[in-house]
Amino acid sequence: MADIPEFSIQPANTTLEEYTAVNLSCSANVGKPGGMVTIWKRSKMSDERIKLGSSSSSVTDNGNCSVYANLLITHNLSRSDHGYIFGCTSKNNHTNDPAPSKEVGPRTILYGPSKISFEIWPNQTNYYIKDAIQLTCTSDGNPRPTFRWKFNFTDIMQNRKYSFLNGNATVRFHFQNLNESGNYQCYVEHHVNGKYMIKNDSVTLTVKELNIIPKPIATESCFRDTCSFIERCYKTDDTAVCSKDIWKIILLFFITFSLILGMATVSLCFLLKIHKRRKGYIKDDFYIGDGEGRNYETLGSRETHTYPSVTQAVTIGLEERNYESRGNGMTDTYSSIDERALRDGERAHYESLGRGETHTYSSIQPTVSI
Fold this sequence. Notes:
By secondary structure, this protein is mostly beta strands. The protein has four domains: 105 residues, Immunoglobulin-like (Sandwich); 92 residues, Immunoglobulin-like; 70 residues, no CATH class; 85 residues, no CATH class. It contains one helix and 27 strands. Strand 18 and strand 19 form a beta hairpin. The relative contact order is 0.08.
């Protein structure tokens, strides 16, 4: 049966710099047959052991039949060893798991900034005024390095325009003018045991004027179907879609608006014409408003006389006037309109215009218009 091994690491410091060479030594009575020792490392978060080396020879003590195995290896520390535990296990062919082991650690590895990488959000070829952007600079180090930003080699400071996150590893801002095109540099600085280390890298951004172009609203594919009147078929290498054509929609709107405006104008003119007719402007008819004086022409003599209104139904000063019947061209004499009927033989009977009453007649005899 194998014994618990003796294991050591030199230098024994728990905190070491990257690339430091350490000696790992292990020895144990491993018994026989097939006794051996193995040196390994593992993470604090896992039981998985990564093998670093195994013994290939043993020394036999004939006095008590003990078999000893010894192993010494040199290991160059890297940043991947940060937080790892180192150990040794002894066993032979008859040893059951878990085999006797001894371990030391974990070890803290100090290392400077690694290669810088950029994360840009949103990541696009060109940016436009008022676009928001976020730049994140990534670089590993222990202890954590410090970050600084520059634009075209001028320091970027925290203010109303620029805001910093994650210990200055991220800078966030909006583009305000075209002069903000250029190089944005990230500087990573680190101090390890009095040693100063710095790395930097940059990214170039381009700012342009924004040209607003109406974007098509994609609907169905137009490979097989024809697009509607207000759509256009947009084709690329392997797709074709019917999309709303903004200019056709605008044209249709103006045509509709013009038709509505035209109909409204025609309707308004028609209503104005009716209104005028109601005011007394009826073509080919005589209409006399109440209480208004009108000039009337005697049919017999073509003379013009003024009467205060038809409603009074008397001639001025009881004067007699000649009126010609348009039906037969004859002239009859009346002293007033309300006293006589025209030519009885023609069956032209009319109501007299009573004083103070108003009646409207279309002609002096039924079948003849004035």
